[in-house]
From TrEMBL:
Source organism, top-level taxon: Bacteria
Spans through the membrane: none
Entry keywords, A to Z: Hydrolase
E.C. no: 3.-.-.-
Single GO MF descriptor: hydrolase activity
Name the UniProt record assigns to this protein: Alpha/beta hydrolase
InterPro entries per UniProt: AB_hydrolase_fold (IPR029058), RBBP9/YdeN (IPR010662)
Pfam families for the chain: Ser_hydrolase
Length: 193
């Protein structure tokens, strides 16, 4: 699949992604990309976030590849669990990075309305990247989310929440996971041909 044949939709997590976050860098460098903007980044409401994601997908000029981080991953799962078949067909795949476990002990209050985590298989190919020292989700919980969502899951060692605070600005290494997703999409297209 050629990179230009779909639209990258960046789905940030809680607090959004600042200018020096890898999602912002990727948005500036990947062709055909835009960001889902939320009305309230600090007090997220699941229904509002899912509705904004739905609008972003519906408004994209081409089929979509989602690039989600943290609470954005959970938003993608909630959207997929309730979206209409026509909307689901607009999404070709998703890269899910450092998904937030909104059911964990001590989960910040503003994120709790995203629980329970949807545990249905995503109806499109996905690659999940977690970390063994992410305060937002343990390695076991990241693997469990990957299994439930039928994602190709990788748990990296010592990379934290894969955000600015853990030293990930451009996160060039992450592009390998986007390439892995694109390979899955190519395989799927060959099987359907």
């Amino acid at each position: 699949m050629r990179r230009g044949s779909f639209h990258y939709l960046i789905v940030p997590g809680w607090h959004g992604s600042p200018e020096d976050h890898w999602q912002s860098h990727w948005q500036r460098t990947l062709p055909h990309s835009q960001r889902v903007e939320q009305a309230d980044w600090l007090q997220p409401q699941r229904s509002d976030w899912v509705a904004e994601l739905s609008r972003g997908i519906a408004g994209a000029p081409e089929p979509v590849v989602l690039i989600a981080h943290s609470l954005g991953c959970v938003t993608v799962a909630h959207w997929a669990a309730q979206a209409a078949p026509d909307a689901l067909r607009r999404v070709r795949g998703a890269l899910l990075v450092a998904p937030a476990d909104v059911e964990r002990p001590g989960c910040p209050g503003p994120l709790r309305n995203f629980a329970p985590l949807p545990l249905a298989s995503l109806p499109f190919p996905s690659v999940l990247v977690g970390s063994d020292n992410d305060p937002a989700a343990s390695a076991d919980r990241s693997r469990a989310m990957g299994k439930a969502w039928d994602s190709q899951a990788s748990v990296l060692s010592g990379v934290g929440h894969i955000n600015v605070a853990s030293g990930h600005h451009c996160w060039e290494e992450g592009l390998a996971y986007l390439e892995r997703l694109q390979s899955l999409l190519n395989e799927q297209a060959r099987r359907r041909a």
